[in-house]
Specification:
Layout lengths: L1 H23 L1 E3 L1 H11 L1 H21 L5 E10 L5 E4 L6 H18 L4 E4 L2 E14 L3 H67 L5 H36 L6 E3 L16 H7 L1 H23 L3 E11 L8 E9 L5 H69 L5 H35 L3
Parallel strand pairs: 1-6
Antiparallel strand pairs: 2-5, 3-4, 5-7, 7-8
Helix pairs in contact: 2-5, 3-5, 5-6, 5-8, 5-10, 7-9, 8-9, 9-10
Length: 449
């Protein structure tokens, strides 16, 4: 009775542990992994921060339309007065002597001094506002350039999103491919185990030599080594995928399997039209626009600028000080910078020409890339058909080899070779189907399908 109770309790704990383990595992489809990558990938988070920086730069440029307001306060106490004036400071000797005589006669009674000093201490307060009326178009074009910066950051983020999606799918399907190869090893191990048991009985009956069983053992050891390599590969790929999508790799369980492939003909797009829709093409256009705006801003440096403003001030430097206010206008006309600006404009023309050449060059390269991706997709489809045919032949060949071996018409080496051919054919089909999926994703990204 106690033994039965112990078994029941043990089973309950085992089921509870399995249930908790099942709760921690995350069964993810390839779409789930892509969504997690878009949410958690650190590179994409930095791209979003770059967009926020570009937007902040745009807002900063917009403040140039607003008036600049400054306030200043100055308090001072000098060791000696900054201004002093007395009878000795008069250059005319006759006037100076006359003032001396008057001071000697009336100075003491009138409480006059021979010298007066000013500005020894005081407080200065000033508030000024300046509004640019015309700055050669630099403010307007600077804002347009900042706007292009936001668009460029957004396009770069979209390009990076495509790269992350492609890399996520690549890691996902590589794991699936290795798991498919482990399933192939499971089938091969079953065949080898069955063959090994049959050989053991035949050897005991004196019908076979031990050397034949040794050949099977070698194949089994080779299979164990291959399994270890595949398991290690899966672990490394899961680590990479987990880091990419922000999930602990130990909890990853991939639920998607290789399904039937669709005919790629339905995805075909004209290369030139597809390239025109790509984010890279938009970036190249923005680069050309930016060079043109930079040229306009340089031209604005050589144009007159007009500022208007006003100020209010107050000081205690002199007695009976009163607040004061004024309005003003400043017209600045650069005169000596025309030659320098002409050279700068020529450099901008050269930069614009280089940007145009780059756009044409990269456009042609992207069209070539698109066509190459299409050819790769077609080749992958053909490879699948060939691999499927080879697998069918390998399965039929193994069946014949097993029948012939049991009938004593072929050797053990022939049977083992037939099993190896089956394994290679299954691996080739798995690799070709993974290649097709990745090439399809790449082509759909290039064509914005």
């Amino acid at each position: 009775m106690k033994t039965r109770l112990f078994v029941i309790v043990t089973l309950l704990f085992s089921l509870s542990a399995l249930s908790q383990e099942g709760d921690t595992l995350r069964r993810l489809t390839v779409i789930d992994c892509i969504d997690l990558a878009l949410q958690n990938n650190l590179t994409l988070k930095n791209d979003q921060l770059e967009i926020e920086k570009a937007r902040a730069t745009k807002k900063e440029a917009q403040t140039a339309y607003l008036p600049t307001v400054t306030a200043q306060a100055l308090a001072f106490d000098a060791l000696n007065p900054m201004l002093s004036f007395g009878i000795e400071d008069i250059d005319n000797a006759l006037v100076r002597q006359t003032l001396y005589n008057l001071y000697a006669q009336y100075g003491a009674a009138l409480r006059l001094k021979k010298e007066y000093s000013f500005v020894k201490n005081g407080v200065l307060l000033n508030t000024m506002a300046i509004e640019p009326v015309f700055a050669g178009g630099r403010i307007y074009h600077g804002n347009q350039l900042a706007k292009l910066g936001v668009e460029a950051a957004e396009y770069q983020a979209k390009i990076k999103e495509d790269e992350v999606c492609l890399q996520t799918e690549s890691l996902y399907w590589q794991i699936v491919s290795l798991e498919e190869k482990i399933a192939t090893l499971d089938l091969l191990d079953q065949l080898l185990d069955t063959l090994n048991k049959d050989l053991s009985g035949a050897i005991e009956a004196g019908l076979m030599l031990p050397t034949d069983q040794y050949k099977v053992t070698v194949k089994q050891n080779e299979s164990r080594l291959n399994r270890k390599k595949l398991e290690d590969g899966i672990t490394l790929l899961k680590m990479a995928l987990g880091q990419y999508i922000g999930v602990e790799w130990q909890t990853l369980v991939l639920s998607d399997t290789l399904g039937l492939e669709t005919d790629p003909a339905g995805y075909y797009q004209e290369a030139s039209a597809a390239v025109a829709r790509r984010n890279e093409s938009h970036l190249l256009e923005l680069s050309l626009q930016a060079e043109r705006l930079k040229k306009k801003m340089t031209l604005g440096e050589a144009l007159p600028s007009l500022l208007v403003g006003g100020s209010v001030n107050y000081h205690t430097v002199l007695k009976n000080s009163k607040p004061n206010a004024m309005v003003f206008a400043v017209l600045q006309v650069p005169i000596t910078d025309w030659h320098k600006t002409t050279i700068k404009l020529k450099k901008h023309d050269l930069d614009a020409a280089m940007a145009e050449n780059n756009r044409q060059n990269f456009t042609e390269m992207m069209e070539l890339q698109t066509n190459q991706a299409w050819f790769n997709l077609q080749q992958s489809c053909l490879r699948i058909n060939m691999a499927q045919t080879a697998l069918n032949d390998a399965e039929a060949n193994l069946k014949i080899a097993q029948d012939y071996y049991e009938a004593g018409l072929v050797t053990l080496s022939d049977l083992l070779e037939a099993q190896t051919m089956l394994k290679n054919s299954r691996d080739e089909l798995s690799d070709s189907r993974i290649e097709y999926r990745l090439n399809l994703v790449k082509y759909k990204q290039l064509t914005q399908f």
